[in-house]
Design goal:
By secondary structure, this protein is an all-alpha fold. It is about 55% helix and about 0% strand. The protein has a two-stranded parallel ribbon with strand order 1-2. α17 packs across α18 (about 290-300). It is elongated. The N and C termini lie far apart (about 105 Å).
Length: about 325
């Protein structure tokens, strides 16, 4: 009888050692380094008990969006410690998508289009309306005002279209903030961007603008604006107005986009490429597809305010009433 009990105990110990060896092989240093090279093998190589004790710190390492550690530590009270350790280990080596689904509990719904960095719908909590994400608290006042008052508003007046086209051409040398701070000086220098006035500027006036430190314009930019004014006069003779030519590419109605993230906003579009190609054929300069798309955004030919920006609905309302602002 004693030998029989001893034999059964030996068989039990042998099976237990086989199970432990199998689990250890799963979490071997070499294997785990291939699955998750994030330091998981450091805690698992010693023992499964150390794996259980370090589970909370590992969960934060593998998923920074986790707000609840219970998704990795919850287990049935009826399960054995050994089953719990295996279940915990399998969760830690689960694919990233599966972990995200487990960690984003359905009991905490996330509204569509609302992200962790977003503010409330009406503002940012400081009494300011919600704007596109590229407008921050550090943005210059001129840049914020341009976003709130001009950017995305449909423009139908020739002089304003010429001005925006010229300002967008300067984006190759300056950013919007630098341009907008000098906008009034540039507008005054170029006669309100009247194509008839700019096209008649002589060499002395061009050199005067180039030497003006307040304008801070390079020679090629000044000459480009003058040459483009001459091209605009030709378009006016052919199409009746620059506005009619530009809006003809849009079928006289702005394109309304529904972008939720800045990364969704493109740098160019097929219509911008078509307009750029035709403008280049007509002798315009600095009118590549990226510059033209920036012009289309500023002039309201395309509405690219993010959908949660307070200006989105306002610009869309204007876009739905084409040609009423002339």
């Amino acid at each position: 009888m004693y030998r029989k009990d001893e034999k059964e105990e030996c068989c039990y110990n042998y099976k237990k050692k086989q199970q432990q060896a199998a689990i250890a092989s799963i979490f071997s240093y070499k294997h785990m380094k291939k699955v998750y090279p994030v330091g998981l093998y450091r805690s698992s190589s010693s023992s499964l008990s150390s794996l259980s004790s370090n589970s909370s710190s590992l969960s934060l390492t593998l998923s920074q969006n986790s707000n609840d550690e219970s998704s990795l530590t919850d287990h049935s009270s009826s399960s054995s410690p050994f089953d719990h350790k295996v279940s915990l280990a399998l969760r830690l080596i689960a694919p990233p998508r599966q972990r995200r689904r487990e960690q984003n509990s359905p009991t905490v719904p996330r509204p569509v289009g609302v992200h962790d960095h977003d503010h409330d719908q009406d503002g940012d909590g400081d009494g300011e309306p919600r704007r596109c994400n590229w407008i921050t608290k550090n943005s210059d006042k001129a840049y914020v005002a341009f976003h709130d008052e001009c950017w995305g508003v449909p423009v139908y007046e020739d002089n304003q279209l010429f001005e925006l086209l010229s300002l967008c051409g300067m984006l190759m040398d300056y950013n919007w903030t630098e341009i907008l701070k000098r906008k009034e000086l540039i507008r005054k220098a170029f006669g309100g961007f009247d194509p008839n006035v700019v096209a008649k500027m002589d060499e002395n006036q061009i050199m005067e603008f180039i030497s003006d430190k307040a304008l801070s314009l390079v020679e090629c930019r000044v000459r480009c604006i003058v040459d483009n004014a001459k091209c605009i006069l030709k378009i006016v003779r052919e199409f009746g107005s620059l506005s009619g030519y530009m809006w003809g590419y849009m079928n006289h109605k702005p394109t309304v986009n529904k972008f939720r993230q800045p990364r969704n906003v493109p740098l160019r579009s097929p219509k911008a490429e078509a307009m750029s190609k035709d403008l280049l054929k007509r002798g315009f300069r600095f009118v590549g597809p990226v510059i033209i798309y920036s012009f289309m955004q500023a002039a309201g030919l395309t509405i690219d305010h993010l959908v949660d920006c307070f200006r989105y609905k306002e610009c869309v309302a204007l876009a739905e009433r084409p040609w009423r602002h002339m």
